[in-house]
Every structure is written in C-alpha cells, then in structure tokens.
Design brief:
The chain is an alpha/beta fold. The chain has a domain of 198 residues: Rossmann fold. It contains 11 helices and 8 strands. It has an 8-stranded mixed β-sheet, sandwiched between helices. β5, α3 and β6 form a beta-alpha-beta unit. α1 runs parallel beside α11 and α2 packs across α3. The longest helix is centred in the middle third of the chain and has 23 residues. It is globular, with a radius of gyration of 17 Å.
Amino acid sequence: MNRCELPTRLPLADGAELHYTEHGRGSPLILLHGSLGDCHSWTPQMQTFAARFRVIAYSRRFSSPSRSPGAHAGYTPQLDVDDLAALQGHVRCGPAHLVGTSYGALIALMFALQHPEQVLSLVLNEPPLHPWACRTPEGSALFEAFMADVWRPAALAFDRNDERTALRLLVDGIWGEPLFDRLPPERMHVVTRNAGAMKALTRSTEPFPDLSRSEVAALEMPVLLLNGDRATDLHRRVVDELALVLPRSRREVIAGAGHGAPSENPVGFNRVVFWTLLRSGRT
C-alpha cells in the first residue's frame, strides 16, 4: 500500500467515518490497527498478504484521516465493534480473517464473540485485555501500576491540552521503555496525527472491558496469539491468560519486537501470520 494513496471514505450513521484501502484477491482479510496507528500502519503487510488474500486495511473512528464529530466524548469499544460490522457489510466481503494489533486486537476479539459467523480466523497481537491479568496478585499490581502511572496521568494531560506529555506517557508506558523521544520523524508523525483516537480512549468510562472467559473459550475459529519478545510483563500476562483459555490456539513470539510487532519486525510478523492463515483451512 502506497502511503500517499487516498483511502476510501465510509460515512457512518452517527456522523463519524471510517477510511479503508483494499488490495488483492481471495479470502477476505481485515487489518485492525492499534490506537496510535491508522490504515497506513499496515504498509509493511500489504504486499505479502495481498498475494493470497483480499486485504482490507481501515482507519478506525477518530484515526487519521477521519473527521468524527464528538470524537472525545462517549466513546466505548462497542462503537468500534459496530463500525467493523458496518465496514464488513459495506464492502460485502462476507466472513473474514481478522488480524489485529493492540487495541485493534481487542476489537477483533470482541467482534468474534458477537459475530462468530463472520470470522474465519483471529490473529491477536498483544490485545489490552488487562483485567484478565488480574487473576493473580502480581498481575493486579501490574495493571494498577499502569493505570496509576500511565493511563490516568495521560488522561489528565489530554484534559489540559498537553498532548505531547500525554503521548509520551502512553508510548513509554505501553512499550515499557523510554521510547517516545527516540521515535524517528515518520513514526512520530503517525503517533501525533492519531492523538485524537487515544484522547477518546482515555476518556472512555470502560477502556479495558473484562470479557467473559467462558465465552472466549467457546470460540471455534482458529486463533493465533502473538507477543513481541520485548513485551511488557502486563501484555505478556494477558497473552498467557488467553493461551490458557484457548488451549487449541497457536502462540508465537516475534523476535526483536515490543508492542508494535507488525512494524518493528514485519518480516517475522508476516511470515508467522501468513503461513498460519494459509494453514487455517479457511482460505
């Protein structure tokens, strides 16, 4: 996908909008980015995946280049789930493989719970299903530290219009290292142009829903669970919990990657995901 390509605009009933690009032919594959990305974040994946699949990469509401009224009030993850259903209906792709990273992975999982008949397979890279880490005291401590040291201070920084401080807190906290001030200019541009999506998320009354373990365990489609080898302890524990609940899932660790495996090690990420999708028997 060419970064300069203009994605197609999809207006939604509530006045919000999505933007998407489409490449390739074959079984449909929908890419869901994290809250600091947009449809162009999947550029390293498009050529590889489009060789065998009809690939649809879309910018979720509030993510560039969307202009969504009321972007920072009343957001819930359910809006994103409903948006994905609207996108699937609009492009008439039928059941699709869903590949999500970070918050996009959480939305993909929620969608699969509500619309299992529309999902061929799931690829979940470090979804922030943080309440699941709280099964143990150690996990609870990690989650509360994240909320106290990262999430709530970032929300306050957004409230006082200190966007740079909010983004620094979020990037450094989510990756677990002082990364923000070392971002290359292009990556910094991606993060800053999508600050509105993160602002909406920090204002949500339920940014990290606690999904039912029994309902997740009942999912029947193939599931691939991913984390980077530099994942934070909190993200790693979440993937550990998913692996326990989904014993038939496949799990892989992407070498040389933190929370952003699709861009940090695209070769490794693409290889694992591509071959898993081909072997799913649903192509």
